[in-house]
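User: quick one, fold this
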Amino acid sequence: VTLKADVFTLKADVVTIKSDIVTLKADVAVIKTDVAAIKADIVTLKADVFTLKADVVTIKADIVTIKTDVVTLKADVATIKTDIASLASTVGTMAAAVDRMVTEIVKLDDRQRKQNEEIAEIKGRLGELSARIPTIWTIATLIFAIFGSSFVLIRWASGH
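Assistant:
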């Protein structure tokens, strides 16, 4: 009976092993599919790594260019600072010149104001003078009257 029981147990174990083998075969099939997908992913990753490697080379070249540009920009900034200092000096000189010009303009303005006052005074005097001086018609009338009077006096004084 023990032998029978052992055989029965062995048969049950064989069935279990066969079942496990079927499960393992299914798992192996899934693993093979997964391995194929993983291999495809590895190929894609390899391509991505090569692309990244090329990008890193490009980035390194860009960094070198940027560093060169920064050095150039620093030199340009130094030049600009020097130019600004020079311009500030020139502006200071120009400001002093403008101040002198403003002072001169104020003096000229004062002189012009005085000249305008003098011109107004001269115009006033000329106006008074022109009121005192007879017009050409007044002078012509006076001359005509003198000639007429002279003519009358000469005519009447001579007796004719």
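User: anything notable?
Assistant: The CA atoms of residues 43 and 49 lie 10 Å apart.
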